[in-house]
Amino acid sequence: MAQIKLIAGLGNPGTQYEATRHNVGFWFLNELARSKGAQFKHERKFHGEVAKVNLEGQDIWLIKPLTYMNRSGQAVASLAHFYKIPPESILVVHDELDIATGLIRLKKGGGHGGHNGLRDMIAQLGDKEFMRLRLGIDHPGHSSEVSHYVLSKPKPEDARLMEYAIDEVLRQLHLIIPGEMEKAMNHLHSYKP
Q: Annotated catalytic residue: which of 22, 47, 94, 115?
């Protein structure tokens, strides 16, 4: 598998969305940047907040799109094209309704599964073979409740489970960054919060 050169965390900009389930991709990048002492900087040409960290001896770009979830691909594609990063070297971190809160799934390629951020990512990159790190947020039970649910704050115990999952992924970056995805999947998919 290809080495990861760009990690995109999906979410919505603005303080009203900061602590919502839909922003778990931003939570992940904030924690990763904090752990490496990196600062995000607003980059207008990339439509997002960008940082660079060194992981496993490699410089890795981090981006939080400021285009709102439905246009996430615009930001990621602009940075990827500028630095000539192929889709298979991109890891997209996002919330996943079809996985229980606190569980983690890593996969390469696939459809968007109704996730608007992924839908735009596929459209803008013209490719769906990027890696996805799916952080479980659980499903509210009925499709009519999804929009309100993802844009609301999780209960404190769910937020904690999501934070534990993020910590677990950070511990496995030594496998994910160089592209040792099978090993990373074995660890992450067997993780129980």
A: 22
